[in-house]
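Dear colleagues,

I hope this message finds you well. In preparation for our joint manuscript, I am sending the Strawberry notch family protein (Asticcacaulis aquaticus) sequence together with its predicted structure, so that both groups work from identical material. I would be grateful if you could confirm receipt.
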Amino acid sequence: MTLSLFAATPSRFDEAAAILGAGRSVFPSLARGRKIEAGLMRDIMAFAFGGTDADGRWTWKQAYEAIEVAQVINARRLQSQLGRLEDSPAETIRLLATYTNLGMTHSRRSEEQVEFDQFSTPLEISALAVLAAQVRAGDQILEPSAGNGMLAVLAEVAGGRLHLNELAETRHGVLKGLFPQAGHSAFDARQLKDRVSTSGSFDAVVMNPPFTDLDDHLRAALACLADNGRVAAIVPAGYFDGTEIRRLASVCQIRCRLLLPTNAFYKHGTSVDTGLLVFDRINGDGILPDRVVSETLDEAIAAVQCLPARTNAKPRLFRTVSATVTDTPSLRPLASGRLRLLSTVAELAYQPKAWSGQTRDVGLYSAYQVSRFTPDRERPHPAVLVESSAMATTPAPEVSYVPRLPASTIASHISEAQLEVVLYAGQAHSKVLPGRWKLDDDGQGFSSLKDDDESGFALRQGFFLGDGTGVGKGTSVSAIIAENMAQGRTRAVWVSKNDTLIEDARRDWLSVGGDVNDIVGLSTYKFGAAIRMDRGILFTTYATLRQAARNGKKSRLDQVVEWLGEDFDGALVFDESHELANAASGKGNRGVRKASQQGLAGLLLQYRVPNARVTYVSATGATEPANLSYAPRLGLWGSAQAPFLTREDFMKAADDGGIAFMELVARELKAKGLYLARMISFEGVEIDALRHELTEQDVAIWDAWAGAFQTIHKNLDKALEATNIVGEEGTNSGQHKSAAKSAFASTSQRFFNALLCGLKAPTIIRDMEQQVEAGHCCVVQLISTNEASMERRLNEVSPADWNDLNIDLTPRDFVTEYLTNAFPIHAMQEDEDDNGQKTVKPLLDADGRAVVSQEALALREEALMGLALLPAVPGALDAILHHFGPERVAEVTGRSRRVVIKNGKQVLERRGTTANKAETDAFNNGEKLILCFTAAGGTGRSYHADRRFSNTRRRCQYLAEPGWRADVAIQGIGRTHRTNQVHAPIFRPVTTDIKGEKRFLSTIARRLDSLGALSKGERRSTSNGMFKAEDSLENAFARRALVSFFQAMYAGQIECMSLADFEEKTALQLRDGDGVLKSAEDLPPISTFLNRLLAQRIQDQNALFDAFETRLRGIIEKAEAAGTIDNGVEDLVADELELIESRVVRVDETGAETQMIEFKVRYKRDLYDLDYARGVIRDNQRQAVPVINTKTNRTGLLITGLTTTDEKDLLVPAVRIYRPNGSRTMASLTTYEESSWQEAELSAWEAAWSTEHAELDPWDTNRLYLVSGLLLPVWKHLAKGYTRVKRLKSPSGERWLGRILNEAEALAFLRVLGHDVTRSMPNTADRCRDLVMRERASLSLSPGLHLKSSRFMGEKRLEIAGNRAEFPTLRALGCVIELLHGVPRVFVPANDDVLTRIIEKYPVTDVAM
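The corresponding structure tokens are as follows:
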């Protein structure tokens, strides 16, 4: 919800929002025990409403309501104390009375107050009513005339589930802001029994109704009750003696007539005597209980405590408390009625079943089904689930664990897919990992011990839930916790990203039968205080967990561990566990990267409670292997029995194995029952990129700023000299120079990213209008909101002018901020450091003030003046808000205020803490059809076409900014594609024709590859087709192409720009101090090149990128031809497949197997017949040349005029040769000219082509070895080099996934595992020839001979070397001996008969590569 600060005539909605904002401003004073004075309220109200009461901008009645808002917020702060109302009513009510007395006396009335009979209930009287109604956790509570929520908040903290009705529009708006989780209506309270769908189901009604038509209001409340329900109502004292109460007693049981103390409502503006009337929905007998008169609050409390029990009341949550309800910590845990769901528990019935194999393919995915058990009854998941095809090929282990669950959980709508999580988590948690550890003496660190060191402790095995956004991870987590508690482990910790997610946790906990009060936030306990909860779920955030000890008080981590106890063996859940990334130090882009305090805290918690049952939960667990450091409980490292001894060993294997290794990790964890990663099916989802074509104006704006940045950079170099950071003999301070250059580069990158997004806005807006017109609604995913720039500009403006602003909210502020605060202007003087090295220090005047370099200052002022005249564009968020207006756009971001356009003026609006919830509700209810969100506001929220929402239009989601973090991008995509949706969304990544945009796409594409590999077992599964493989430029091929580009630039071979111009415009130095090109290692990296490219004029950056991309294409094409590109899991679909042999080569302790499978596969070759060749000639008339090889008489079709890269990655002229066998080889022009290919006459060439094509074998037959199953434990024994992980498909649909080896590699692998390979040695001529000539193996023959391939006289031949004593025998068997420089060499002719005789005489004893 947003509130206008200075709207001239606030609307009702704005009035409610302004009151909310003012109330939040009053709250800090109230919380500190400060009396609220009129002067303070005038200032707060003037700020909130944009003027004074004298101007008519606000009334004192509105000020009183703002104080009531503050009272409600403060009551929530005191929830842990107020929740004990039944246990210590006197102390609790006295506490509330002290806060009532801090408020102002309501001495002025408004027309609306008189019209609606509005006199809010003081908090202490509200507590009496809630105590009389006996509100308990889970009760359905109605407040028919809810006002500002003074009664409602006490019912809420008692555990009630609220429905709030308020006819007055302003108060209704206030209630929606204060109680976003409650039900709301705005009807005449007398009509509620017919207009509220839950009428008849309320356990209790607490009310302070209008005294006009009082009897009608009381009877309407009675009609809304469930049988045996109770009403506690504030009434005028005179009602107790009238005839209407006697008539009421005939239809219900009157339980109490209590006269409240005199002037109970004095602070709230009336001295009318009042009473508390309590009656139950039970057949009336006409009898009225005696009237009780209370002179004091204590007497009133005593009377209420004598009330009979409400017969439909929930079991009482009894709590013990200290003598007074204060914040004083107690070391004694509080007994509670929490975890009522454990009253009945039972074992979950299910039937294990065998794995039935992979299901049907759905694009990159396979349809998901629970594969290892049949549940007790039909439990379908509410959405169609899939998993990556690679994961689907990997069977999960058998299940044997029998969980115990609360009966309410078993009876809930929990699906079989969510129960599967409970089974595998319980099974994983039943084991202890090998390896021993010890804590440091101070408990703030840990180290490993030898596996047999009994002085250390072991870690319990953990589990990782990697389900995608929208699958229902929260319910699964709640079920895991419930299962642990049903086993008697009644304490649990739930760690998540931010405090607001506690409401999501409570929602999910309720779905499995729990109560709201079962989950308590750590933030409700003071820093360093003991946690007094005897049992339940402690919810905390990563940011809270990392808070260190201070002022003699224990850290938050110590606080949690002390509550859990070191022998704790319950559930410890790390939700959104990717927030623990960087839990260990490692290599970063700029050297060694320190471990984050947040990551360390999460890691240390796991070692402080080693027996805890840890569950990691994240759809985006790690964007790179280093970010898995927070997960030692998966057993990937840590002992001699683990796949890797240390985390460093794991990291090295990941670096060596690349993406293929990352894919393997996820599949291995699933095979061991430690990981599940399902996602909602993308069937029905449309991915339709939206491209913004640059206009002439766009190009002019971009080019103007590119020129400006080049000027600023020149001025920066001059300023470095003027300030003496750089001297005549070189750099005086590398640190100062590096900092200045880094600040400039960072500013450039941020600015052009913002400008790029802003340029897209017009195209996005036009498409949004079309989508809304077509019946859709729009969601825009953004990274930034420009809030910091806005706040800087607002700080320069008087608050009096916030009603009519004129500030620049374009990305220009990034540059202005840099020039103002980071551009070097302070003079420096040379100095020496402690090591005698030259450095600089600030030059100070006689008063100790820094001296400003006048030359540098002039350079800065020149740049600032130039900026003021440049055109700019607003950010995408502001552009959308200004175009559609805030009344049509829901904003869900981290901004606390914003500038909007109203009546043609810039006006500041404040956004309260509930604004994001209100805006989300407005979108989901259809009040707004456009929503913009960022990660700061969108975490945990749903924007999909949920069947529960009024707005079920199809969502069209725009990815306007890819950003830098793959996990954020994917989390955002999951906001509109979730369970229970009416329509699958349309995803529209927004791009431009600016080549430099590759900078951002490259980073996100690379990280999506890693993210998909680690979290889904398949690199392609995460981006779902939105990013292409070629979008990633952060790889070895791109680096080679960049070095080639730099070399060409140095050699003057880049036509679009000279070396000097390139260095000047990009500020990249390619030459060293001697003017020589730097070594490849010292040349700029691809990220720096792309950053600087983005800041060039459009024409320059497009031309430069084309020159770079031409080289990249040549390198990649050569790599594809050589088979050295790692594309991850690829399908090999054989036309014919024969399984020769399958053998188990290793069995894991879990029963998971490693297999070696031998196949004979045949592929139908894609041959080029003459018609195909003629088609190529037609398509390339000027460049196609028919050729014949004069040495082999083979035919080819030559395409000229191409380019490729040579061995040094330099661009060279090239040709392509098509052959009848289906090959299309690229070769340099020089290589072709030195070959035996000659141009041929067309008719002769066609005849030769047809003849050669007719003689070709249409089948390609290979022998293939697949290592399948569990691979991580044997990874180090597999052949090094290119790690080919493939999925083999048979024509019948069977699938096998694993690492492909050739025969030599397979034999070496078996041997290292201790298997006898004697019978597996090749023993036929064709196998031996294929191994040596095609797979480049070397065969050892007995005795002392070696069969290998050699090039002799320009031809590749089969040679036998070694024991010369056997040469005569070999000649007798048919071999040819030739002399080279007097040395005899033995060659085997191309005749299998000869080779057969050799193999029979000299059997193969070994195969080597």
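For the figure legend, we might mention the following. Residues 734-773 form the longest helix (40 residues). The chain has six domains: 78-106+118-305, 342-680, 687-993, 1034-1124, 1166-1255, 1321-1409.

With kind regards,
E.M.
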